Amino acid sequence: MDILERRRSERILAPVRIRVIGNDTGGVSFAEETVTVSFNQQGARISLIHSLLSDDIVLLKNLENGIEEEFRVVGAFQQVFGDRREWGVEAVNPESGIWGVAFVPNADGVQPKVLIECAACKTAAQSTLSSIEYDVLLATGLISRHCKRCDETTRWKPSDQLLTPEILDRSKKPSAQVSEERRRTRRLKLTMQLRVRNSWGVVDIARTRDVSKTGLCFFSTQRFSTGDEIYITLPYSKSQTPLDTKGRIVWAAEAASGRFYGVEYVR
Fold it and tell me: Which residue among 55, 57, 127, 245 has its CA within the 20 to 30 Å range from the CA of 228?
């Protein structure tokens, strides 16, 4: 059995109901309920009407178990029908358990190493790819990742350059660790309507400034106190049944016409 067949045996083809929160290619915040096409421990293939920017961070919430995690957009697969397209997203924390499945790793732990190059500056590297990166590369011939030389996210493609000692030495540098640290410090800049209420009866329809899997920041004209336990509905819509998430206000900062509040989720 070759590497590709083993990788396919890890993938689960199943429609799990999820909510995706992020920004589209126009920078507009959205929340879309959809399903997975397939998933494994390292990532998922999802179907969306909204278009995504490669290397952006989006939040996926499993609507069956309520677990929410951050995923990095690796790239697009084919357009399915109409405006709907399939996207490959890579789990920032593969150990999160968002899918509610105990994955059994391959006994040999083999992951493909591929010689790829930045399409912008032609810098080549021999890189170990995650399963979702490998799938996107096979399907489209391109993946998106951070290029240290360009100092931005660029497209990478299979390289036909000779594998030189210089390339091997460059490939040994801990770029994956740097990329992981870069992801951890990123917060999803998101302007979206939410509903906030505390146990004292204070309720407000406010707006987020940014969100992450552990909390969010919102702006409100109402007065809340540090330490308040609150209930958040995000995104908020009068036409949807409210689904509250419990949180705690951990900081507050004055603004010109209201206050910014930092919230951590309470599990």
Answer: 57
DSSP-derived letter for residue 105 is P
Chain-centre distance for alpha carbon 171: 25
What does the block give as tokens for 206? 């406010």
What strands lie across the sheet with 113-118, from one edge to the other?
A: 124-128, 113-118, 152-158, 143-147
Query: Could you give the CA distance from residue 93 to residue 68 in angstroms, rounded to a whole number?
Result: 11
State which H helix or E strand residue 170 sits in: helix 165-172
| Whether residue 73 is found in the same domain as residue 176 | yes
pLDDT single digits (tens) 4-53: 344 434 678 889 999 999 988 888 889 899 999 999 888 999 999 999 98
In sequence order, what are the residues at sequence separation of 6 or more whose Cβ sits closer than 8 angstroms to the Cβ of residue 160?
none
Pair (200, 176) in one structural domain? no
Per the structure, the complete domain to which residue 164 belongs is given by 1-186
